[in-house]
Amino acid sequence: MEKQSRTTRFCLICNYVSRIIEPITSRCAKFRFKPLAQDVLSDRLKLISKKENIVLSDEVIQALIDTSEGDLRRAITYLQSASSLHQDKTHITQSDIFEISGIVPKETIDEVLKTCQSDSYEKLDMIIKVSLKTLFEISICCQQCLSGR
């Protein structure tokens, strides 16, 4: 890197700086970006869906915004994955987005919280086992409970 620094510039883009080896990070300037605002995400997703002839309802756009947490790349990836599920690109639903993103359905979260409040270990154990069978990660479920999503 030092030998070519007069003629060459590198731009590394990553989600986790800690995963880049120290000899490289020590030679780089680091820039951190905040999550994008909801209106910016919404406008961009509407533009993309219009250009790609994908029909999106407002609730699907909101699901993309909520699950991507301000990361436009992630929202676009979810949109692309959801549109590939449907040949006609007109039946993308909120549940498609939640399934692709790995979000546990709100009904399941509500059930877990209600069971926790009931002081019944047996019921909680049963819900956890059912969640494992439906492939929901318990850690994601707990994160969603704590964040209120």
TrEMBL record:
Single annotated GO MF: ATP binding
Any one GO BP annotation for this protein: DNA repair
Keyword check for Zinc-finger: no
Tree of life domain: Eukaryota
Keywords in alphabetical order: ATP-binding, DNA replication, Nucleotide-binding, Nucleus
Keyword ATP-binding listed: yes
Gene3D superfamilies, per the entry: 1.10.8.60, P-loop containing nucleotide triphosphate hydrolases
Compartment(s) of residence: Nucleus
One GO cellular component, as annotated: nucleus
InterPro entries in the cross-refs: DNA_Rep/Repair_Clamp_Loader (IPR050238), P-loop_NTPase (IPR027417), RFC_lid (IPR047854)
Family statement: Belongs to the activator 1 small subunits family.
Name of the protein in its database record: Replication factor C subunit 4
Organism: Patella caerulea (Rayed Mediterranean limpet)
